[in-house]
Amino acid sequence: MSDVSRRGLLLGGSALGAGVLLAGCTSNETKNDGGQTKVSEGKNAAPGKNVTIGFSAPAADHGWIGAITANAKAQAAKYSDVKLLPVDAGKDAPAQIAAIESLIQQKPDAIVLLPNDGAQLTAVARKAMEAGIVVINLDREFSDPAASFALIKGDNYGMGVSAGHYIGRKLKGRGDAVIAEVAGIDTLQLTKDRSKGFADTLATYGLRVSNRVAADFTVPGGQAVTANLLQAASKIDAIWNHDDDQGVGVLAAIKQAGRKEFFMVGGAGSLDAMDHIAAGDTPLEATVTYPPTMASSAISLARLAVQGKGLDDLVELQVPKLIVLQSETVTRSNVDRYRPLGFKS
Amino acid sequence: MTAGTGPTTNEPTTNGPTTNGPTTNGPTTNGPTTNGPTTNEAVPSGRPGSPAPGLRWVAGEPVKRTLGLVAVLVALLVVGAVTRPDIFGDTSKLWQNELTVLTLASAIGIVTVGMTFVMIGGGIDLSVGALLALASVWCTTVATQSYGVGGVIFSALAVGAGAGFVNGLLISYGRLVPFIATLAMMVAARGLAQKISGSRTQINHVSLINDLASEKILGVPYIVLVFAVVVALGWVLLNRTTFGRRTVAVGGNAEAARLAGINTRRHTVLLYALSGLCCGIAALVVVAQTTSGSNTNGDLYELNAIAAAIIGGTALAGGRGTIVGSLVGVLIFSQIANLFTVNNLPTETQRIVNGAIIVGAVLIQQFRLADLRRRPKLST
């Protein structure tokens, strides 16, 4: 009996010690990234009527969505006349609809909404508009333009186009070039748009995608499909990876296979990808952006729309109805300019 | 009355697992080394069932089962050889390709070893994927990485084993159904992982860990060796120790095991802690492979591990299963994923094939079992 209790004491003691040690290991201090928000210096910067903005985006499951939410909050904090009401959107469309319903009850002046699914959230967005709330549709488009006051989104097809041009210019005239594509979640429309833009653009150079695999926007997913991809193609000339988050895994797999005969283009524009482009320590030569800073811009748009102001450099008195962001190509020569926009994956 | 009929009706079913013991010379080697009385008590319960006729097929069955799976694996390689002779026909390319298959099977394989123990012990652990995610996040925080490689390894293993221990306590002493307890842990651990990481991917800068995946010894990546060691230790633990025999006994009939003197509650706690520890080891493998920790790691690993264990012949109800079977189960799934990618085929079809394989493998095993049961009846 005494033997058992002594053992228990030892076990308990070591468990306690381990717990104390572990508790010290949860800190994750991160530097605040500077260039993700911006307040213009023109007349629009002057505080106006107080604006309450509701905000809803899907629960963050990877870096890009995480950056969207963080940017919206940071941008709102920069305005003295903006109060942000972020609501948790949960995991799926019905949960987000419920969240928006409760948000409408609080009668904010505007709602910035990144829907889980554009079509499924259209009805509730229209309801908000009918209640006199300015709805700014962020990235994923509603099926009815009347459901939002303005739409700001990234350009998925354009990402494929930008990546296609970068690879096309380098491999022009080599019809036998092996071009591989590591796509994101294959069932999403945005993945199909990206792939179509890529294939269409490559075709103008007389090139085509020879190996295509789909990961799931996660690092292990990117690592696993790339490890197999590198076995399938013993020689590759170029790889386009749709997403820099899963790109961490893609680069890991390339390093583990010891392959370096090709160059790679990324997608989205994470800070980590830009660091690799600047350092030139991996095959990653460029990335095409899909900037989460659009959340910051959406907050600014919502504020201006409620205050009845237009964009400073445009003639019109209201903000534009539709803004599609450029998918820019970040290479070693311009990476320093883009780095402040890179998001922490 | 009802309590009295319970054990007696259960008795015949337990005869299977308990006679399993004598056939794979468990008691003969284990009896003398540790607590003879316990195993001695278990033996008489198997004696009345006249082990002689039953003995032959019980001994052969897991082996045949595993051989059937190996045949499936070989068939997959043949498919590869037909569709991509340039890879599967060239020895060095085939070696590289199969190393990739093994590497990608490592993390899920290690998790499956733990899962196999839990399932043989009559439980189920739905939290493995979430525990892997939590351990991978916990061991790659900025603070943990500042302690260097020791800190990373320690926190991954301690978090995994600790959370598994909590699972075990809830099930054994909190009297929660394993399904519920581990379901709760699955949700909570994933949430904690999200909270710690802020849902961001945490890049690992401890190069010694990353080297586990990129550095090789005799051409074999270190993580494959880690996988091999875990499988070997798992096999020894299950087949050559009292712990393993007790696991089978607890899973076969917990009440009989308790009456035979096994502390079933404590044993259950240990099983879940073991599964958690495996998740911690797997987390290190994933961190090495992906050079990062993330709360999305290990997504659906619980289902993949259960599927691999089941096609490997582990009974969902407990009391039966082998480490080798689970290993081959994992390799089959990994080989299928590889075949699809090297043939440039879409992943949707792969999921359908995976589903068919699970059903097919279990169906085949059931048919064989029925055949073998009929035969001894005819002979007597």
Automatic annotation (TrEMBL), chain A:
Compartments, record wording: Cell envelope
UniProt KW keywords: Signal
Superkingdom as given in the UniProt entry: Bacteria
GO molecular function: carbohydrate binding
Main location: other
TM regions (residue ranges): none
A Gene Ontology term for the protein's cellular component: cell envelope
Annotated PROSITE patterns: PROKAR_LIPOPROTEIN, TAT
InterPro entries in the record: Peripla_BP_I, SBP_2_dom, TAT_signal
Domain annotation Periplasmic binding protein: ranges: 53-309
PANTHER family linked: D-ALLOSE-BINDING PERIPLASMIC PROTEIN-RELATED
Recorded family membership: Belongs to the bacterial solute-binding protein 2 family.
Annotated protein name in UniProt: Sugar ABC transporter substrate-binding protein
Source species taxonomy: Bacteria, Bacillati, Actinomycetota, Actinomycetes, Micromonosporales
